[in-house]
Amino acid sequence: MSQDYFSKKGKAPMDQEVDRDDSDSTPQHPSSGRHHYMTVGSGSTSVHAAQLQNLLDNDSGYGGSIANGEALSAADRHIPTAANGHLSEADRRSQAGAIHQLWYNAHRVTLGRSINKVIELLKELQEMNVSWPAHYPSVTRAEKTSRPAMGHAFSTAGDVHGSAYSVPTSPTSPPSIRRSLTSVESAESSRAQDRRPAEEPRLVTPQIAQDFSVLKLDLKLGSLHQAELVHSLEKGSIASLLDGKISSSIRHLLNLRERIEDTSSKVLVTGDLNAGKSTFCNALLRRKILPEDQQPCTAIFCEVLDARENGGLEEVHAVHKDATYDRHDESSYDVYKLSQLEDIVIENDKYTQCKVYVKDVRTIDESLLNNGVVDIALIDAPGLNSDTTKTTAVFARQEEIDVVVFVVSAANHFTMTAKEFIWAAAAEKAYLFIVVNGYDNIRDKNRCQKMILDQVHGLSPRTHKESSELVHFVSSNAVPTAGPSGSGGGGGDDPGDDPKGKGKDLDKIRDFENLEQSLRRFVLEKRARSKLAPAKTYLLNILNDVNVLANVNTEVAQSELDRVTNELRELEPQLESSRKAKAQVGDQIEKITEDTCKAVYDYTRLTLNSAIEHSGDNNHGVPYRGLFSAFDYAEELKDAMMSYIQEAVAHCEEHAKAKTVGGVNAIKQLGIMHLGDDYQNLVFRPDVMFKRKRDSMARQVDVPTELLDFVDWNTIIQKQEKVAGTGMALTIAGALVPRMIGGNGWLDHALSAAKILGNDNLRKLIIPGIIAAAFAAAYYILNQIPNSLPHRLATKIAAQLEAVDYVHSNSNRISSSVRKVLRYPADNLRVGLEQSVKDLGQRREETLKVRQESEVALKYFGNLYRNSGQQRAVVQGVDLDAPPPGAAAAGLH
Fold it and tell me: Is residue 66 part of a domain?
């Protein structure tokens, strides 16, 4: 290319005439005020100059740099043809430009539709993630004896063979970071790589599960690995984190859609602190616009734009915090002169970014801003290591960028923050433009180049393959720059300069010129890479992640469906059996309770009746101390009888305890039989039963002692009947025996004595005889008190107890206590059976719900797997490196 960048007389005039041959062969379009290409000098025109001329003549659809805002669309352009099949050079260039435009627009539309489709898929995945939390792949990480080397690869259209390279690092380097479905082969070109057929593994390997590109859940906590942290969380927490990742991916896809539809290109210049970013930007502009210092001086984003977008005025628009910039709304920014920019970028409390409008009077083949093809914004970012807030802002800003120019200090190489930034940018940008600044200060330049290229190989293999175009070692401070006003050259040579020093400066300037040309080609001539490739790369990465996630969740849903189906087969019989057991056991419990209570009641009633009936059969060991102690004897005898009845009650209670133990054990056996280990065994303590006062009604029975109680006529009559029977037997015996033996003389003597006494004397003896008989009867009665009093008292006590229904009351009290005690294990067993039926029913409902959700999830993730795979094939079909069909014949190189 015959052109002079650094003529002391300034740049070539814009109105210089072009070569007559070119003007004659160029199709004449209506005057639009657009820029034209011109050749300075008499040298031959290079291939790149011819391509640039072609791009100027045939705008690729951007049209943003046309002065009057008019552009010729593909439909308006006339594509020349010749009947004999031969076209002139200008016609071939025009036809190639039209083909290139159609090819570019077709790819742009395809990627735009893919972005819309992927956004729909992600939104549906978000909705599904709420009802059925997505399963994150779980892989056990193998332990290694040594720290692995650091490696990194980037997903591309067809990188599915081989494994990621790794660069040996120090023992303190982090574990290797790899991307799924990637490969790097130094002996193979990127285009050949992209054309290889893709292999889609069905099984989830550890590499695929761990190497999500976009949907990776980046967690850091101490020495724990990311996979260990993810799989230690609950399923809901993972789903929440995944939902956040999906939301950020949707936002990024929206940004990508805006970027590919935008007619301008944004170039972000970033790097570590004091890497020389501002110096590099000034060298590109050939003007000292941005402040430079040995200390960090750029604290906010400075976006350098062509002054034509600001009505041709050179000025700085400082955008207020929390304000959206609008050039037509002066309330959103403050206006400053270019000379005041240094004060603005240092004091960053008031502003978030600056819009710097500058004029670039260089020719279109030299200028980056005034290139005649597309509007370019050059963004100078704060250093990555300045502070957390600024570093985070740079990370977020890179998502809006088409081209990232990463400035590296030749002395410091890549820091950890720089590596993390490049890894984050690699989610969509397979190619990065890397500038190694301050190269003139390095003594061993070969060693520096080797070390940095090795690091680039591990961070961005695609960039390393194109290192001749994308990695440059320069010294930006050696490039002459004019002042902010644009007058004078800041790097002119003094007459006394050393020729050897001039030669070195020329080499530095030549290196920087090569960088400029490579950057122009990357931004302008290879817009498919710089503009569309980030969208394609990100789409492939997100579709690969979605495809792997859908594959994993399809298998999980199928496994879950099989599990719940088998579980339902087991639950249905268990539930039916549990319901039947509940009814049967309820009847058995009632029978056990009723039988036990009835047996206790009958036994108690029979025992108490017998005790009351036979309480007067003896004196119960109470001694009779004579007539004068008769009443005391009666009270003691009454107490002894009551004690005897109480002992019968105690015996009945002990019997009831024994029967209760049997009933409790019977119920317990039913519980163990039907509930097994789920049966809650209650501890039964029989000694606690009947701790209250027994037969309180018996203590309230009051039986008074009366005189008649000492005479039991029934007992006496029964004894007289016994005596009379004995006397009659003796009379008969006395009458018969004497006769039999002839001994009847004593009766004759008695009758003789009665005759001797006579009637008068017999009358006199009647009263004394009666008295004697009375005394004899009284003595007999008093002598019979120990035998007659117990019966009399027993009769009165029985009558009193019958009046208060003593037997029934105690029988009912004891049986009620037994019923109450049996009710606890019975109710416990009923509750257990009820809970068992309830739990089984609830498990069945939950299982049915899970089965329904699993069926929906299986269908959804199956469709998602198929749709994501189809969409990925569509995106892979967008070959941005291959030339447009027919372009070679048309003359497009």
Answer: no
Q: What is the pTM of this model?
A: 0.51
Query: Which CATH number covers residue 476?
Result: 3.40.50.300
Q: What residues make up the domain containing 424?
A: 111-304+338-491+507-551
Domain annotation covers residue 713: no
**Which residue type is seen at 832?**
G
Distance CA 424, CA 534 (A): 12
**Tokens linked to 380:** 């100078």
Q: Are strands 301-306 and 375-380 parallel, antiparallel or unpaired?
A: antiparallel
Cα–Cα distance for residue pair 528/464, rounded to 1 Å? 19
Give the bridge partners for 301, in sequence order.
Answer: 353
84, two tokens: 């004999």
Q: Please, what sign has the CA dihedral across residues 569, 572, 574, 577? A: negative
Q: Is residue 417 part of a domain?
A: yes
| Residue 504 · residue 516 · CB < 8 Å | no
Measure the CA dihedral 585/588/592/594, to 10°: 110
Q: What phi, psi does 367 have (nearest 5°)?
A: -80, 145
The pLDDT tens digits of the residues spanning 409-419 come to 888 888 888 88
Cβ(395)–Cβ(87) below 8 Å: no
With contact defined as beta carbons under 8 Å apart, do 479 and 442 qualify? Answer: no
Q: Is the pLDDT of residue 18 over 70?
A: no
Q: How many domains does the chain have?
A: 1
SS3 category, 356 = strand
Helix, strand, coil content of the chain in percent (nearest 5): 60, 5, 35
* Domain contains 869: no
Integer angstrom CA distances of residue 431 from 111, 402, 428, 470, 620: 18, 11, 9, 8, 117
